[in-house]
Write the structure tokens for this entry.
Amino acid sequence: MSLPRKKLEERFLRYADSKKEFKRAYLLWCFNRFRDNLFKSKKDMLSIRKKKIQYLIYKIHLKSKQLSNLKKDALKEKLRHQKLPVNGNKNILVDRLIFTNKQTQKCGRALNGQNEDKMLDKLVISLTQNRGHEILREFSRVTGVKEEVVEVEKAGGRGKHYDLVFVLGGGKRVQVEVKSTECDKLNEVWAPWSEGVQAINGPGQRFELGRKYADKWYEVNVKSGRVNSTFGLKTVPPNREEWLKNLAFKQGKPSDKWGAELYDKSKQGGVDYNKMKVMKADFTKKMIEMLGKRPEILINTIPEAQKILNETFGQKHAWLRIASREFKWETGIPIPKLREIKLKPTTKTGKISEDLYVDLLFDNFEPMVGICRWGYGNGVANIRLDFK
């Protein structure tokens, strides 16, 4: 006998509600994501749709069984690789591996620059007008600061690696980094910047890796004429010095004639967008080959990366993570001490990416991923090295 759609949905939700936090979150995520397919029609509700739900549940149990057979150290190693917390008993570790990424996959929409700026303006006004605001009360509780926050300022200008300044009654200034998301809840991950796009957006010219990336791209793709022939450009390409200054390391969209013509074709939605994706992936292969033969490039990048880590993390006294329905303060985040940069030839799927990936390994910190790539993903301007 077939069950009505509503009854079948209720049965699945009751099963989800009977589980603990991580499992419940994942089951509800499955319900919301696959609902239209799971409960599409009333005809074969029990025989087909219910089986799909049961299959999802079966996969959960199967994965749980496989992970439960591993030793605790092996589970922790998997968690470290995924940049997830390693505390807790074995059951907690297993649940975290199965469900945390699924729970957060739906909830990773960081605010873009313009919206974040508006959010900060509203936040400053709200905290200024309400000295008893829950964010301020929680700040005092988490940090142990007893002095009243008498003023909240929005930071601005180059070289400022924080968003707000809390001015205390005694004159002390606390620099606050704000990371925000459009999602209802915060991500269940260790990194305080997980609601943002990345921890550091590093200008490419400040790294040996970024400079070598630019040099090789110019030789292989620009000077050789490959870009002009591939994209049918009519404008003559700039010389190396002009290209480095006005395009490769320009923090913004291209403004010169050659760059503008290329960007119009290679940007997302442009007629030759896919051609640029192929060109970047082919170039990544060449970079991987070069770095394999010249390990000194990554070695020389370490002190340059450490300098930026010192600058950025050293300016953040506290981190404020904000979602639409909750917030959290993070303090005591140390300056990461970079030990090694390792080439990451392929992605998790075993494929070579359009961007160049490296692993950043630290003495006192969870690993990060470094991504050497173009701003706007266009292969035209703004080469950078992001830390995530």
Remarks:
- Residues 5-105 form one domain.
